[in-house]
Amino acid sequence: MNRPEQVTAQKNEYRLALDLLSSLTDAPTAGAMRTAAVQAIMQRVPQSRVAWLSQHLQSWELSGTTAALAQIPIELASTACDQGTVVRSGLWSAAPISAGNEAAEALLVSPANALDDSELGLLAGILRLCMMVLQKQASLGVRVEQLQTLLDLTSNWHRSQDSTQLLENMARAAARILHADRASIFLWDRNRSELVGHPALGVEGEPLRIPDHLGIAGRVLRTGVAERWDQSDDPQAINKRIGEQLGYTTRSLIAVPLTDRRGRAMGVFEVLNHQDGRFSADDERFLGELAKHASAAVENSQQINELIRTRDRLVQSATATSQLIGNCPQIELLRDTIRRVAPTDLAVLMLGENGTGKEVVSRSLHLQSKRCAQQFVAVNCAAIAESLLESELFGHEKGAFTDAVAARAGKFELASGGTLLLDEIGEMSLAGQAKLLRVLEEKIVVRVGGSRPIRTDVRVIAATNRDLAELVRQKKFREDLYYRLNVVTLHLPSLRERADDVIVLAEHFLDEFGHQIGRRPPQLSDAAKRSLLKHHWPGNVRELRNLMERLTYLTAGPTIEESDLSFVLAPGAMRDEGKVPNNLTLNDATDLFQVEYIQRQVQAADGNIAQAAETLGLHRSNLYRKMRHLGMATNE
């Protein structure tokens, strides 16, 4: 796989990985985690069916899909778990999430070619990690409940993500509760065969390092058995050399092992010099219980830190691959503005024609903000019926209306902590605008049919191809909402205004699609480049991207000639011939025919959209929606 293809694939995998990690963070139970994970995969793999099967005793349970259990090939899931690898059969492919001595679980996806084996196996691996972390957290929660007397200490420890501060708090708590002079938590550095104090209370400067085979600490590490010692015992049992170097005399101590959940040695928890001269068996048992919590807290802290580091790497990689392409002054200015605005929580209004890249810019703002680890949710206001707008944005409770068979969170709830893109904001009704303004000002939503206020923290980005200022003058857009959204305005230039970037973008898309389908990206001839520069580009970057995708698939030779562009760049010629070219895909040919036919009807009606809609058998608003979907210019 070549580098650009790797970047594209990794970008999708990173975003899905972030979604799955987010579902792990939000899920209170394993069942909720399964449902949230399946929904995240279905959103990232469009037009697919996804199911999570879990075996309990002799039966299987289904999570996160509307399909019935009878419609899912259980035998395929069982085979995948038995073989420990991805298997395919008919319309489905399956990958094992857990197998062996664990309860069998499998991820199934249909159609079978929606994901290749490596992608499906990677998803199953991520889910396996998420379930492991969730199970470990649940196990730790049970342990904390059993040790109610230690709740105050452990609750503070588990909230900490600073491992250095976490260990110091543990050592100080142990010394205080056991009435000791000092306490040390030694973590085992296997590579250097040393026990390293994190911290060694009372020792200044560099971390205390001792050989892992000396003294009582070394023996406890090797045997995994706790020990107590005082001056009445064998004086040769302790490593006096360390005390001499530190100018400290050890009179009594307890040392207990630190082990992970699999029983593997992690280090030693040691407490020195009881105020009464010696430690009791009760002190040893207490330190042993404390050490169990310390071990779990250290392990969780390490896992959390590793997940955070992984998340940050993924976000940084996604940010690097979501940069705006182009070198013209307008794009350079836009990049600079994004860099300055992204770290703030200011509302942003993006203005520009259809296809100029408003969602790309929105994602770039999100990924460069402090909210980058949270959700990015995009809503097309023009695609939501007015009757459903409130439910879509603010959510609804079960039974709120006829089809409300279950409670559902709205987009504001889903995007809480992250970024919400309100695309085509100019198409929202005045009633919807009033409700939106209330939420933006109060930062509280109430679900349809509910009464409980839900606080939401969302950064709002609005986008439109309409002239909102003119709509305000025409009383079609609320002035107060306009000023609430228009804190920072970004004007996205049309492709006609950045002609110098046409070839740069075209070559970028050719390279991207070429690597996607496994062919050497075709090159543009000089004549083809001149034709691209002459074109008006009514569909902007989206039109250019679609054209390059068609050419990548349809041109067999290594070079794209001017004649290869004509069937897209000269639709008038197709009208003269009275037919659509026969070298297009069915979807492209259908879209092209609809554009041509709508244009003819509008021209026949002298530009009267209502009359053209009546001829076409459509409502006027539906015709406008259809034209926008096809990338056609409207005068609405």
Walk me through the structure.
The protein is an alpha+beta fold. Strands 8-7-6-11-10-9 form a six-stranded antiparallel beta sheet, with helices on both faces. A five-stranded antiparallel beta sheet has the order 2-1-5-4-3. The chain starts with a helix and ends in a 7-residue tail after the last helix. The model is unreliable at 142-146 and 569-578 (pLDDT under 50). The protein folds into four domains: 3-143, Beta-Lactamase; 148-305, Beta-Lactamase (2-Layer Sandwich), CATH 3.30.450; 322-491, Rossmann fold (3-Layer(aba) Sandwich), CATH 3.40.50.300; 499-629, Helicase, Ruva Protein, domain 3 (Orthogonal Bundle), CATH 1.10.8.60. The radius of gyration is 32 Å and the shape is elongated. It contains 24 helices and 22 strands.
| Percentage of residues in helical conformation | 40-55%
Number of domains: 4
User: Averaging pLDDT over every residue, what do you get?
Assistant: 81
Class by helix and strand content?
Answer: alpha+beta
Give the CATH topology of the largest domain.
Rossmann fold
Provide a short characterization of the protein structure:
The protein has 636 residues and is of the alpha+beta class.
Task: Label this structure with key terms.
single chain, 636 residues, alpha+beta, Beta-Lactamase, Rossmann fold, 4 domains, 6-stranded antiparallel beta sheet, 5-stranded antiparallel beta sheet, 24 helices, 17% strand
